[in-house]
Amino acid sequence: MNEWLGEEKKVCIGPHHPVTRGGMNFIASLDGETLRQAIPEIGYCHRSLEKIAENTDYQGFTTYASQADPLSPYSCQWSYVMAVEKLAEITVPRRAEFLRVIAMELNRITSHLHFLSFMAEIIGAKILKAQSFKRAEIFSHYTTTFCGNDNMFLQIGGVVRDLCSSDWETTLIQFLDHLKTFIDEYSYTLKNNYVFQRQLSFTGVISVEEAIQYNLVGPNLRASGLAWDLRKNRPYSIYSELNLEIPTCQRNKGDAHDRVQVRIDEIAQSASLIRQCLEKIPQGPIQCKITEPIKPKTGEIYNCIEGVRGDTGTYLVSNGTTQPHRLKLRTGSFSSLALLEKMGREIPLSDYLTLIASLDISPWEADR
Amino acid sequence: MQIRHIFEHLQKDLSSVFFELHEDSPSHGGDPFILVPAMSLLPVCDILKDMQRYDFQCLSNLTAVDFQDHLRLIYHLFSYTHHHSLTLTTSLLPPHYEIDSVSRLWPIANWFEREVFDMFGIQFRGHPSLKRLLLPQHWTGYPLRKDYERMAR
């Protein structure tokens, strides 16, 4: 081992590696077990969605928008749909807004459960991994029963499907109760298990200043100690009518442990939002009347929503025709990756891998 | 602060720079924005970031749009202390698509600028390592320009 030290070696972590979850590459300069420098390389999942948008009509792109991130299809889709609605001055029926929130929060729970399962795998807690994954699958099932095929739920002017049946609602609420017990267990393990503590506490510490400079958003920003949530601070849709507490971590360390804890709290928060929505949901249409093809007036708009991985922004430029002149999707994973370039200096390799995992990066969303 | 107030303060703070405020009109919808000349972008950004009154610590988005006769750069700024946001734009005329980099002020701009360079071919002066981000290094052409030949068609 000793003869390897003092000599830098270049190693590629990825594009296929357990922590990269899809396709991204880190060119690492290693000195023994210490990482001297890591350069993230992205673009493996680039599907040129922004170019496609310029050749598709407004309603047609909603399907593509959901494909920006397969793990959280509604983040980009909602952000895009809302931008078009604002520019074309379309008012969405109230019932549709409630259905959108339910779909979004179900999606948030599923994605966070996938994250918890992924974190457990990185740490080596195989049973916890399997348990989280099983619950994530059940939630996927609920989402699919409700929304149909993942990528076609939201559309400009409303949603595609209504709530399935009262039976669906009852079982969903029962399962939300069950989920509460599960996340309490996970939270307990996170706080008290030696291996979790050892691997996550004080690993990959990100200060608030750093997080803001690198435009870190969503759960990662909240884990660094800044209580900022668009659903609460700049409420859109019907979030202002719902009771919502911004989940921030009590520890305020900004390490991997906090990032896991914040997501656990968010699951509880989303479950509460779904319950509130199911109680308050009004009767009415789920889609407003729009004239096809949609032609928003000339102008540009930047619209942000709180997606699963933080602020998901859509910048849309319209020139008054049926196709966008320019569309840009701004996602949380992109900025997390930019920060990883800076963080990968002089830290143990294993800590860096935990840091990558704890940021919950989706390469599809970063590459678009 | 509303964008109108930011605009008025900016005019006082930097009287040598010509600012233009574009607001909503019956024919033109969407967000209001402030247009600055490309050569004064860096001093304006300096003030917007460092002056307590504006305090834009965060660059939430940076992108470009091709309007055929010119390229436009769009900076979306946000302040967590004042909870206000600003859309700052600047135009670049052909053939010199070149502008000062703001990565010194906002580190995230490093990647945003690399992406804009990758897709539009705008050169950023003073950028630490300006190379393609999403496309392979050997790629030719800038795909998000309107004159880019679409191979799929």
Tell me the CATH superfamily of the largest domain in chain A: Cytochrome-c3 Hydrogenase, chain B
Q: What is the alpha-carbon Rg of chain A in Å?
A: 21 Å
Structure classification of chain A? alpha+beta
Poorly predicted parts of chain A? none
Backbone shape of chain A: globular
Which SSEs are present, and which pair or pack?
The complex is a heterodimer of chains A (368) and B (153).
Chain A lengths: L8 E5 L11 E7 L2 E8 L7 H5 L4 H9 L6 H16 L5 H30 L2 H22 L6 E2 L2 E2 L6 H27 L1 H7 L7 H6 L5 H5 L6 H4 L22 H25 L18 E9 L2 E9 L7 E5 L1 H12 L3 E2 H10 L4 H5 L1
Antiparallel strand pairs in A: 1-2, 2-3, 3-9, 4-5, 6-7, 7-8
Chain B lengths: L2 H11 L6 E3 L6 E2 L2 E4 L4 H10 L7 E9 L4 E9 L4 E9 L5 E3 L8 H12 L2 E3 L28
Parallel strand pairs in B: 3-6, 7-8
Antiparallel strand pairs in B: 1-3, 4-5, 5-6
Can you walk me through this structure?
The complex is a heterodimer of chains A (about 375) and B (about 150). Chain A is built from 14 helices and 9 strands. Chain A has about 375 residues and is α+β, with helices and mostly antiparallel strands. Chain A has 2 domains: about 50-90 and about 290-330, no CATH class; about 90-290, Cytochrome-c3 Hydrogenase, chain B (Orthogonal Bundle), CATH 1.10.645.10. In chain A, the strands form 3 sheets. Chain A has a 4-stranded antiparallel beta sheet with strand order 1-2-3-9. A 3-stranded antiparallel beta sheet of chain A has the order 6-7-8. A two-stranded antiparallel ribbon of chain A has the order 4-5. The model of chain A has no long low-confidence stretch (mean pLDDT about 85). The longest helix of chain B has 12 residues, at about 110-120. Chain B has about 150 residues and is α/β, with parallel strands linked by helices. In chain B, a hairpin with a 4-residue loop joins strand 4 (about 60-65) and strand 5 (about 70-80). The interface of A and B includes residues 215, 304 and 328 of A. Strand 6 (about 300-305) of chain A pairs parallel with strand 2 (about 30) of chain B, so a sheet runs across the interface.
